[in-house]
Amino acid sequence: MNSFFSLITKNCRKFKIYPGPDPKQAIMGSLVFCIHHKQGCTWSDELRKLKAHLNVCKHDATQCPNKCGAQIPRIMMTDHLQYTCTMRRTKCEFCQSEFSGAGLEEHAGTCGQEPIYCEAKCGQRVLRGRMTLHKSKDCTKRLRRCLHCNREFSADTLALHVNQCPRAPTVCPQRCDVGPIARADLEAHLRDECKALAIACSFKEAGCRFKGPRHLLEAHLEANAAAHLSLMVALSARQGQQIQMLKSAVSKLSINFTGTLLWKITDWSAKMAEAKGKDGLELVSPPFYTSQYGYKLQASMFLNGNGPGENTHVSVYIKVLPGEYDALLKWPFSHSITFTLFEQGAQSGQGGVAESFVPDPTWENFQRPSNEPDQLGFGFPRFISHDLLYKRPFIKDDTVFLRVKVDPSKIVAV
């Protein structure tokens, strides 16, 4: 405080400030705040009382009584002595050993009595001093080697692996005299080696009911060769019947029940040349039906013409074939029929050639057909001339398309 006053007096002389009769007393009587007012101290009084105040101010730093060398504000001294002083005396909460503050910091993280989580992440908390023993004997995540395949697994999955391990020994399910067999080899053992396994005869599918040990199978085959041959013949006959039934089913699936036939005729040039060299050559279409239970029809074509159209036109006809449901249909057949020969290619815009007719009920061609129909059918001998056929794009890629359509409005059904 004296030095502070001396500094003030010296400055006053330097600047020729002449204090009053007792400047020291005036200065010491001036009003000041505590030097720790920014830390929250609210003391304010004469300067002469500041030193006494600092001796008790809770914000003023003082020497740690444990002589750790730290200067600590009085307000924080209690916490310092209890928690941070390096010279304090305290006990480890786990092993209860007493240490200085610095010693406790060194001891922390090494105490053998502190419970910590297993490093292998098994989820258990173990005393640090017992961690090595836990990891080697108790930890469910420790690695263990399978005794059969020599692979490593965590302890909690090893049992599941052993139940599936391909090298684990197992007993033959037929209880044969062979010792334990590796699980992976069991199937081959049963298939090729096991003498106790009952094996079915190789002619089982043919009907042989023999089933017995492997060593009796060869004797059975030799003694029953004739019987097996008979079984195979019978099996072949049954399979032949099944094949015919399947062919019939497939054939039915391919039948046209729409009442419209789109007949694609390929290799037109070759067929036309053959028709010109052979009189009366007729092409017939696949049969089609007016409906699922309707009339059965078939189209035919003479490429080089027939009757009045011979050598100059293509002739087309329709004939009624004997169908499965003729007894339930109305006769004579009276649906209108339209033949259309299509032009091919969108650029022509010419459409095609079409001819239609409605059957006359007196025509013989449309009466109920006999089981062996021999009539030509009804149609157009001069359907399209050869000249027109080649002038317009009816033929493309040596193929023509003829549509035969039954008018649905004329269908007579039961």
UniProtKB/TrEMBL annotation:
Residues 258-406 form the MATH domain. Keywords: Cytoplasm, Metal-binding, Receptor, Repeat, Zinc, Zinc-finger. A zinc finger (TRAF-type) spans 52-105, 107-158, 161-218. It comes from the Eukaryota. Pfam families: TRAF-mep_MATH (PF21355), zf-TRAF (PF02176). InterPro entries: MATH/TRAF_dom, TNF_rcpt-assoc_TRAF_met, TRAF-like, TRAF1-6_MATH_dom, Znf_RING/FYVE/PHD, Znf_TRAF. Its main location: cytoplasm. Residues 52-105, 107-158, 161-218 form the TRAF-type domain. The keyword Cytoplasm applies. It is found in: Cytoplasm. This is TNF receptor-associated factor 4 isoform X2. The gene is LOC101887819.
